[in-house]
Amino acid sequence: MKRILVVDDSPAELFRLKEILNKHDFDVIEAFSGADGVTLAEEKKPDLIIIDLVMPGMNGFQVTRQISCSLQTQHIPIIIVSTKDQDINHSWGKQQGAKHYLVKPINETKLIEIIDQYLS
């Protein structure tokens, strides 16, 4: 079973993403802050990471950059999932190391399609 780390400070968003991922037989690890996301990425070595951008403390761009630059975690694909839908956010996310950028509310079919693309 593939393991996915979801980093989001919103309990509602975490619940929704976990519901979708569990339905598709993924093991889900949850982090409620960017710092916890970095720690769990290093400890658990998930197969993929889904990160929100807007979080207190360490934001999603900072988390993505830290995970992408670490020798321990740079191989893990990162998908940013955010309400921010401006071109600059998409571009900056990819410059920080994200493989893909999706806008909330999440389309379940599209999310699973993208995850499968990176985990196949």
TrEMBL record:
Is the keyword Phosphoprotein in the record? yes
Provide the Response regulatory domain boundaries: 3-119
Q: Which SMART domains match?
A: REC (SM00448)
Q: Which GO terms describe its biological process?
A: phosphorelay signal transduction system
Q: Identify the Gene3D superfamilies for this entry.
A: 3.40.50.2300
KW Phosphoprotein (keyword) present: yes
Please give the residue positions where the record annotates the modification 4-aspartylphosphate. 52
Q: Which UniProt keywords apply?
A: Phosphoprotein
Write down the PANTHER family for this protein, in alphabetical order: PROTEIN PILH, STRESS RESPONSE REGULATOR PROTEIN 1
Any idea what this protein is called? Twitching motility two-component system response regulator PilH
User: Which species does this protein come from?
Assistant: Acinetobacter apis
